[in-house]
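for ur thesis appendix - MvdC/MvdD family ATP grasp protein. copy paste whatever u need, i formatted it the way the template wanted (i think)
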Amino acid sequence: MILCLTHSQDTFTIDLVQQRLEALGYEGFRFNSDEFGTKYRLRYRLHATGPQYELRCGNRVIDAREIRGVWYRKMWDLQVPPSLDPAYVPAFLKEYRTSLHIFLDSLDVPWINRMDLDHAVGANKLMQLTAARSVGLHVPQTLFSNHAEDAIRFFDDHGGNVVVKLHGALSKSMDGKSDFFPTTRLRKEDVPMLESLSACPMILQEYVPKDRELRVIYIDGDFYTGSLRAPELTDWRTGNTTLVSWETWELPAAVEEKIHDMMTLLGLPFGAIDMIVRPDGEHVFLEVNPQGEWGMLEKYLGFPIAATIAEKLVNRIEQYG
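the 3d part is after this line
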């Protein structure tokens, strides 16, 4: 059995991966992380032969020893029962989060991706940029600061060609319909607003002229790359997403090799990588999202991403023994 760790609103991608797992002879059990405190029961017992962990959902009982691999798609915040007294909500969240991680930490099996590495990389864009530069990928000049003088000097040093963005995304989707702060070109008239950085540190980067934006899906050495032309937008999600037209893109072999080296260095078998192709053809690394969206590439370009995730995980399981 393979545990598919996701959330209750996940559609399309989770179904495709489970279908391929079943075709390969493995049952995929969908575990909606946000419903853990409302629809699941967890039991831990310490026997003379060792610990026993059980996950219960309705009449279904899963012994942790049955789980041979984990696909870590996403984890969402826990749902709180509406009948719960607000005074008990902090304890509810704390204890259920602890229980969930005790269960997941017990799974000494192949993961795509391992949760600790997934979270560490996803939460640290500066680590990503450092790793990308170390393997030879081109990355933009970057400043992360809460100090207005630093930001103003950075703006001036780059002749005003600077974009600004939050370190963490506010949106959970690629369609731009949720609340999010997009990557924004900083204008001269915006510079006085940098005095407010003390309230919210932000990332400033040199503006990179672009011919295309790329979403590169990396799966354990395989690549699926979609591209789009959106030169008039700093962040394509700020436009009308119904007009966005994804096209296939062939990464140069040297760029693929460097991305592979970076992902190996970060310990991630899966990642959604954002890049820019400059008008001169140079590929510029922006970031890697260990839980990035890819359904649009499978849907519009026909990439077998879901099947590849399932196959790569099964390969790791069979090699693990």
